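Hi V.,

Quick status before I head out on leave. The structure for the redesign project is tokenized and pasted below; the design run finished overnight.
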């Protein structure tokens, strides 16, 4: 869960890292008159507009690269967790099955029991647990992005959420009966 929160925060940081670059690219004078622009020009007095644009672009690319690296680490950790959990569950179930009384094995081949346990645990891990953890990570990412957008422009965020919600309601109400 901690990795999902970290992944969501890094995604929000990655998205917001593009904003200073876009601000400098679209209106350099307006950016230079902002609080951040005044601080940058007082810290680096000989900085030209093109150099500022290049520095903002390099910073955005660096933050996006770090975000992607963190996403890769989180994805690896999630997959490793699912494999470890799957191994633990398989081992535990096979141990419990092998400690059953002898009379339970008279009518059933033990290889069938072992194969069923292995297949069921693998199916659970790949089709339930891993998608559940991926969905959790995506929900956390969406919440962080919505929170970030609310900080930047609450009205635009409310309008965008309303439009997307109406779109999904229309799609699911129209095509939901075909599922």
């Amino acid at each position: 869960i901690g990795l999902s929160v970290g992944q969501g925060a890094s995604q929000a940081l990655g998205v917001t890292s593009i904003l200073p670059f876009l601000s400098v690219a679209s209106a350099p004078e307006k950016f230079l008159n902002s609080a951040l622009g005044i601080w940058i020009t007082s810290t680096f007095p000989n900085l030209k507009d093109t150099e500022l644009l290049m520095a903002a672009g390099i910073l955005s690319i660096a933050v996006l690269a770090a975000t992607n690296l963190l996403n890769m680490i989180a994805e690896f950790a999630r997959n490793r967790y699912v494999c470890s959990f799957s191994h633990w569950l398989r081992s535990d179930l096979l141990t419990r099955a092998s400690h059953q009384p002898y009379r339970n094995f008279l009518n059933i081949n033990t290889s069938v029991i072992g194969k069923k346990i292995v297949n069921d645990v693998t199916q659970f891990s790949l089709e339930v647990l891993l998608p559940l953890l991926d969905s959790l990570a995506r929900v956390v990412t969406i919440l962080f992005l919505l929170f970030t957008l609310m900080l930047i422009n609450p009205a635009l965020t409310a309008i965008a959420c309303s439009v997307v919600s109406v779109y999904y309601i229309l799609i699911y109400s129209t095509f939901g009966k075909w599922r």
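Above is the designed sequence. The radius of gyration is 26 Å.

G. will cover questions while I'm gone.

Best,
W.
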